[in-house]
Amino acid sequence: MALQVTITNAGRAEIIAAENTGTNKVTIVAVAFGTARYTPTKGQTALQAEVKRVSSIAGQAVADDTLHVVALDESTDTYNVGEFGLITDKGTLLAVYSHLPPEGWIIQKAPASTLLLATDIILESLGTAAIQFGDVAFINPPATTSVAGVVMLEDSLTSSSRTKALTALQGKRLFDAIGNDITFSQTVSKALAGKQPLDATLTALGALNVLADKLIYATGADSFNITDFTAFARLLLAATDGAAARQVLGAAPINNAALTGTPTVPTAPLAVSNQQAANTEFVMRAISAVIDSSPESLNTLRELAKALGDDPNFATTMLNALAQKLGLAGGTMTGNIDSRANSIIRALNASGAVVGHLYNDGTSFGLLDKLGQWALRISNEGYIDFTGELRGDGGGLSNVPMSGIPGLIAALAGKLALSGGSMTGAIESVSNLVIGINGRGWVYHDGNGFGMVNDQGNWAVQVLRNGGGVVIGGVLHGNGAGLTGIPLAGVSGLLSALETKANKATTLAGYGITDDLQWRTEPLTGKFTVECLDITQSGQESGILVRTKIPIDSTVMPHLTIKGCINGYTSPFEMHLSWYFYEGAFYLPSVFISGFYSPLGGGGVRVFLSHENGLVNIRLDFGGITYIPRLAITAYKSAGYGGNYAWYTGWGHVPWSRETAIGGEVLASSHTVLSTANTGAVFKNFVLAGGSARGMRTVLDLEAPGTLIETFSRTPPPGTLKANGAAVWRAGYPDLDAAIYVGDALNATAAWGYRCTDPGNPTGTRSPSGVYLVLPDARGEFRRGYDDGANRDSGREWASWQDQSIQGHTHSGFTSTAFLQSGAGGIGGPAAQGLTNATGAASVVGTSGVTRPRNINPLVCIRY
């Protein structure tokens, strides 16, 4: 933004002197910052309240009368800028800029921030040719057609600006609007080349005012007129095809015409034999010709009757005879088919090839295959022969080679008797249950493992897939023959036996039991520790939905520990989930949280439980958007409780957003554990506070955002702002905005805690969507507690200011003479003697425009 700075008289003189000599230029070497806010004058030689002078500056002329200046301060200093000036190498205040307090600060410098002031300065009635800057080159001037620099983006296709650049989005919209055609101008030119040029004919047609039901007709060269459509013409034009048009015209259809009246056609010669229409005259001539030749024709008819057996009902006779025959398409026969030939019926496929025969050879009857070999033969002696294999439909013997009854016996010999026996092959089962053992247990597989299940349906011995090892449920008992005769009383007996061995290892790693092997062997002791899931979710998330393998109907649950960083790399935390014994997954667990990240009650981490496909889901709600959450979930199973360790592998997770509702989920109860993790770096403030109660309150974070704090320092304590009614940027103080914003309903009337769009005019720019938040102004004010239903200050709106008032009351007075003296008009003024003090009263020691008690005036700040 270009600023209209004030060129001082001393600065103007130095510039004019440099322009006159033409050799020496005015060099700007520093920018001075001050805290005063006022209207500058040309007679100034220094800032009114200079606090900082910065020599890291850069600049250049971007127009004949405009300088672009950039000042940089990377120090840890803290100050507010209400005025600034340009200092030359001769120490001259060349130019100064400031504005009044209602406009706010020009810029504010915090300890951990870098001040970067970039502005365009217009030199009133002076040129820039005689002004130069030092060698620092980090300037970003505004871009022009001749100067490379910063340019503002324009997000509109209707702007007429010549200094703004089009955004990529609007460029894409423009590209879409021209059909994604990079040769749009050429395409348009080619399209226009194929159009009718504007000439006298088009001009004449364009001049016509054509309304509905009008017809344009030519009256001459390039001359046209309009006439009305008749009803008949409108109906004819509305016809959609020839048939409809003929109907409008009243014409008969070409096909199957139904003519009325006495239509006539030309008479064709008798020799004509085609599709020409024959009229009555042609028919009469043809009949006469037949009659003329009748004797010969009658002889021919006699011969035909004799050929038909003189049967006057010849057609009926033939139909009755044909009805007794079997059609080629098939049908039903009531008698037998007798054949003396060997082949009775041949079966053909769709292409006509033979696929088999119904056959007899004089001694046998049956079916032949396509090669002419017997497939099924029934002999005259009453036996049946099969060639090949007899295949059943699933309800009988399948694939059993049949050689008469001996073949059946041989087939049965290959089957295992129900009473038991020896098998030389394997039993394969596609179902989970392989063998049931008289209700005492099962040989079983579930796709992940194979082994034995006890009568309760729990794994006794499970062999895991892919070399996963063997899992034994319960206690392993020996028979005295294991490990050189040492009886095994579970793993405890094994460990006792190992204690008697020389050179024994002292750790599980000494026996080769490490990492994955360790957690797979620990179930032998009835307990284990398993890392269920390791999560690093990139990006910004509101929470994580963890899909476990724990059945929803499990009666016992493990202890889960979740550790990690909820927000980036600076918010470590630890969470413990513990369930009540034997109450199952949805007897809600207790959640213990410790960590720097805000715990429950402050928008922090919460735990929800739900279930999906019969398995437990755990949702971690972070309480807000977090960046790159990293978590590791570990299950701790105590002896005999917590289910099968296989439940704690193969977990998955997906990010969760606040817009996604999960039906039926429940919230777990939570407790926050106080530790150094959730007090964090604030212990530093406690040390700096000398171990005082104030420091301890800071450590415990008892002063929530919106808390008023009094200090006898003129500088607000860390984490606070002066409660001076200023409008601050909401995005910079989100917790404070959430704590004290009065709400949309009170935004138009509240004295503080409302939002506005202009910090220089907060009252006049109130808006619930404003980006600024107005702080309470506690300067010179007494505080009165919010009534909150007590009816001591009823009817008063929240966040309101109240003027002073004095309650109605009476006083007693004593005098030695008259209290009032008489005057000319009756009652006069006070008696000259005055009043005598009553007990407990005091003489007036001072008067003022307000009523007040004795007081002190600390600086009132607000915690953000």
Automatic annotation (TrEMBL):
Source species of the chain: Phytopseudomonas flavescens
Source lineage: Bacteria, Pseudomonadati, Pseudomonadota, Gammaproteobacteria, Pseudomonadales
Origin superkingdom: Bacteria
Signal sequence extent: none
SUPFAM superfamilies linked: Receptor-binding domain of short tail fibre protein gp12
InterPro entries recorded: Phage_tail_collar_dom_sf, Phage_Tail_Fiber_Structural
Protein's UniProt name: Phage tail-collar fibre protein
